[in-house]
Amino acid sequence: MAKIMNEVSRTFSEYLIIPGLTTKEHIPDRVNLETPLVKFKKGEQSKISLNVPFVSAIMQSVSDDGLAIALAKEGGLSFIYGSQTIESQAKMVSKVKNHKAGFVESRANLTPDSTLQDILILKSRTGFSTVGVTDDGTSSGVLLGIVTSRDYRASKDSLDKKVSEFMTPAEDLITAPNGVSLTEANDIIWEHKLNQLPIVDEDNRLKYFVFRKDYDSHKKNPNELLDQHKRLVVGAGINTRDYKERVPALVEAGVDVLCIDSSDGFSEWQQETLDYIKNEYKGEVLIGAGNVVDKEGFLYLAKAGADFIKVGVGGGSICITREQKGIGRGQATALIEVAKARDEYFAETGEYIPICSDGGIVQDYHMTLALAMGADFLMMGRYFARFDESPTRKLLVNGNYVKEYWGEGSNRARNWQRYDMGGSSALKFEEGVDSYVPYAGKLKENLDTTLGKIKSTMCSCGVSSLPELQEDARITLVSSTSIIEGGAHDVIVKDTSN
Q1: Are 69 and 99 a contacting pair, CB within 8 Å?
Q2: Where does residue 276 rank: exposed (0-12), middle (13-18), buried (19+ CB within 10 A)?
Q3: Helices then strands (H, E): number in the chain?
Q4: Dihedral sign, CA of 288, 291, 295, 296?
Q5: Concatenated DSSP letters for 28-54?
Q6: pLDDT score for 433
Q7: Distance between CA atoms of 172 and 300, rounded to whole angstroms?
């Protein structure tokens, strides 16, 4: 018979953190959330450290260049999804590396032959009120005009009215040439009392917009994650099939770190991929691996050369691997065991390999629990999919705004490489679902709230850094009735929705 592990496989919801002594020194403004992303030797520092302990999931519905730019500005990092062509993924990486703060690539574009209805649909889907009108309807086409909410009256104008009839034409626009500095662009905006300034190249092709409303955010963000050349830091996901062709293109595009995207990292396919990349690039290309759920899996990937290791199988909100295959482990139990293995490995070898908790986060406090249990940083999909900056559509469903969110193991993504077992390329069954998540608005606003909760909890524990949290936090198991006690109970909660 199989080996039976009688230890209960537990989730984050089954734990709480016990408060510690909060001194006058423990205030949120003094909490440091910096954490290592990749391995380092004792006495040395990680080549890349995150300023906030969050990375976005390697998913079509989460991590494109738009989210990567927004998250890097806040101190985190995105792994741009690999279930696309090599060329398109490399282009996304290049866009992040070449991003200029304050210069926004237009993500809402139409042609003059489009209609007011197209404008309204685009605005509803993207949330953007400024639409670039170009000859081909792309973000880099010849600029023919712009449309803002001041150019039409949705309640009175005909829905089939052509954009060309109400747009502000290019000849009436004040523009600036590509290469203008942000200071110069802002001066033009203030001098001419503009809300937005189109930036065009010598062929009058649209390059960027600079917005008046973003003026304050153009100031340097102290948490911004930058490389040695003051460019935003970005990662990318790869698979164990086409890495010999994909990795060179991503490296050429300037990627800072890679991660093998797989539902099961305890495999020879990952070892072969790690061996090739480490040998081909002489250890200069940083690459994480995973996912694993126990000590054996961690040690296998550690010895194979992984620069960080992801923990978690089947705990994602859109993942149905456990239902389909009966494979996985409660995220809390998996994380606790792998963190212990990580610490033992560090003590024996002097090499610290960061671990990433991937999945199982339902409430914000679960993030603090995961960090206290030993995670160096967290990978999240559902959390980031809710924001304006994610690449999916914003829809109105049953009176509520939502964003689309689908798993890489769903038929929609058809990312069969993520579930590669070495056989044919067909996706034989789904390990992910196609779904919606409640729309939440801007990334920055939500992230500030989440980080505020984490910092507040850390202050209640009497700690000011993540290493202190992992060293000093005390965690307790809770009963089912204790979980009920933790929420509002024995009262009639007022309806505050109106």
Answers
A1: yes
A2: middle
A3: 15, 24
A4: negative
A5: GGG-B--EE-S-EETTS--SSEESSSE
A6: 64
A7: 63
Tally Cβ neighbours within 10 Å of residue 327: 13
Amino acid at 285: V
Which residue in the block uniquely carries the two structure tokens 């389909």?
A: 324
Residue 134: other Cβ atoms inside 10 A:
24
Share in percent of the chain as helix, strand, coil (round to 5): 35, 20, 45
- Residue length, the chain? 498
Backbone angles phi, psi at 362, to 5 degrees: -110, -50
Sheet strands (E) in 167-227: 168-169, 176-177, 196-200, 206-211
The neighbouring-strand residues paired with 441 are 387
Please report, to the nearest 10 degrees, the dihedral formed by the alpha carbons of residues 292, 296, 298, 303 taken in order: -130
pLDDT for position 141: 95
Q: Which helix (H) or strand (E) holds 471?
A: helix 466-472
Point out which residues pair with 54 in neighbouring strands. Answer: 378
Nearest one of 221, 220, 224, 244 to 234, comparing CA atoms: 224
Q: Side chain identity at 296, as an amino acid letter?
A: E
144: phi then psi, degrees, rounded to nearest 5? -110, -15
According to DSSP, the β-strands at 434-438 and 400-406 are antiparallel
pLDDT under 50 in the chain at which residues?
416, 424
- For 455, residues 6+ apart whose C-beta sits below 8 A from its C-beta are 28, 31, 33
Q: What is the pLDDT of residues 343-353, one digit of tens each?
A: 999 999 999 99
Alpha helical stretches, state H, 268-389:
268-280, 295-304, 321-325, 331-349, 364-372, 382-385
Q: What is the pLDDT of residues 120-132, one digit of tens each?
A: 998 887 778 899 9
Task: Name the 3-class secondary structure at 102.
Answer: coil
Q: How many CA within 13 A on the CB side of residue 239?
A: 21
3-state secondary structure of 287: strand
Q: Are the CB atoms for 309 and 292 separated by under 8 Å?
A: yes
Residue 220 DSSP one-character state: P
Burial of 336 per CB tally in 10 Å (0-12, 13-18, 19+): middle
Tell me what pLDDT residue 431 has: 60
Whole-angstrom distance, CA of residue 306 vs CA of residue 62: 24
Query: Considering just the CA atoms, what is the radius of gyration of the chain in Å?
Result: 24
User: Rounded to the nearest 10 degrees, what angle do helices 65-73 and 86-97 cross at?
Assistant: 30
Q: In Å, how far are 152, 200, 399, 418 from 122, measured between CA atoms?
A: 14, 22, 18, 32
Q: Tell me if 438 sits within 8 A of 400, measured CB to CB.
A: yes
Rounded Cα distance between 110 and 363, Å, is: 39
Rounded to 5 degrees, what angle do the CA atoms 316, 35, 238 make?
A: 50
Active site residues: 319, 418
Asked if 37 and 362 touch (Cβ cutoff 8 Å), the reply is no
